[in-house]
């Protein structure tokens, strides 16, 4: 069965959830607001057009005159010059007693009369028009004359499109301002969670031992609970270390007495080899199991972060003193002093001590240690110029009690402990061929932070 797909990013982020939710509601609100404003503006614009056409109709009614033969005329030209320009979209027409008078913009087209004193749709020379009709008795006449004033729908559409563009731009600016305010509000509101995350990272790096207490009331209980968990975990780990130390002392002392008694038996001419062999096996197992228990108790605990380069320097200094009579040359190459492993200090010393001591045992003249960071992992290479290790035997050296060279002092525990402790922290250890001619031990560990 296939693994379920991971949840989308917005489902895993408070920030994205809040911002996307606000974006949806702001978009809906502004869309409804824009639609309402557009409807109000359209109604207002049509009312203004009706009022404007009424003014033009009143102006025509005041200027129209009728001659003796029934001919219609105007005392003067219309004040709005758009009625004189062909295709302008503004038209007027007078009709009465079989006489028809039209604006130059109307050309030869004839407007169809509609209901009087009411804005209605009609047909114009270039399409639909908004038209207003009224009946007046011209000066010098006795019969009413029907006056029609119209404006093309395309002119109305131009006005509405202009308003729609201005409205859309205004709402877009409002939306941008609101979204900026939402982002600022969400960022400020979630800052305590960011502080908690930064505090936890600082705890893991070993820079502090608890979360801050000056957090908002809504998240302070969470911080208090985390602080209690950290304190309780520290107590459990410390108790486990103490118990492991007590167990080691309680077992090693009787073992030392047994080994001493076995040596006395041999000194007295009796066979104590079985006691010595079994006591030595017990001591190896105790050392191995205690190292595992200590590393398992420390794995993943907060403040698990230890600088690597200073630890390497201390161990190199100690090992070089142990092999002073051999005059070994130790070299350290580090990419940076800030390499920090997500490993407890005691366990890191156990790892580095075993691999460097192992290289020193087999080296002829030189041991080189390099520390580098790659992809969130720390790589520690320990090279020696000794006889090296055949590829077929590289896995066997990681078995408990396995010693490939009985002439070299040791119990066959070092590399087995290294492999198990590294695995508990999510690391690994391997053996290859060194550029110096001997063996290269590669220790890979998780990097803190």
Task: Characterise this structure.
The protein is of the alpha+beta class and 449 residues long. It folds into 3 domains: 1-189, no CATH class; 222-298; 306-446, 2-Layer Sandwich (Heat Shock Protein 90), CATH 3.30.565. The chain has helices spanning 14-63, 153-189, 191-204, 220-267, 273-298, 308-322, 345-362, 414-424, and strands at residues 64-66, 72-74, 90-96, 99-102, 120-124, 127-136, 145-152, 306-307, 329-334, 340-341, 366-374, 377-384, 428-433, 439-446.
Which descriptors apply to this entry?
8 helices, 449 residues, alpha+beta, Heat Shock Protein 90, five-stranded antiparallel sheet, 14 strands, rod-shaped
Residue windows where pLDDT falls under 50 for at least 5 positions: 401-412
Give me the side-by-side strand order of the main sheet: 4-3-7-6-5
- How far is the first residue's CA from the last residue's CA? 35 Å
Coarse shape: rod-shaped
Average pLDDT taken over every residue: 80
What is the number of helical segments per DSSP (H or I, 4+ residues)?
A: 8
Largest pleated sheet? 5 strands, antiparallel
Strand content: 15-25%
The total of beta strands comes to 14
Radius of gyration, CA atoms, in whole angstroms: 48 Å
Write the topology of this structure.
Elements: H1 14-63, E1 64-66, E2 72-74, E3 90-96, E4 99-102, E5 120-124, E6 127-136, E7 145-152, H2 153-189, H3 191-204, H4 220-267, H5 273-298, E8 306-307, H6 308-322, E9 329-334, E10 340-341, H7 345-362, E11 366-374, E12 377-384, H8 414-424, E13 428-433, E14 439-446
Parallel strand pairs: 9-11
Antiparallel strand pairs: 1-2, 3-4, 3-7, 5-6, 6-7, 8-10, 11-12, 12-14, 13-14
Helix pairs in contact: 1-2, 4-5, 5-8, 6-7, 7-8
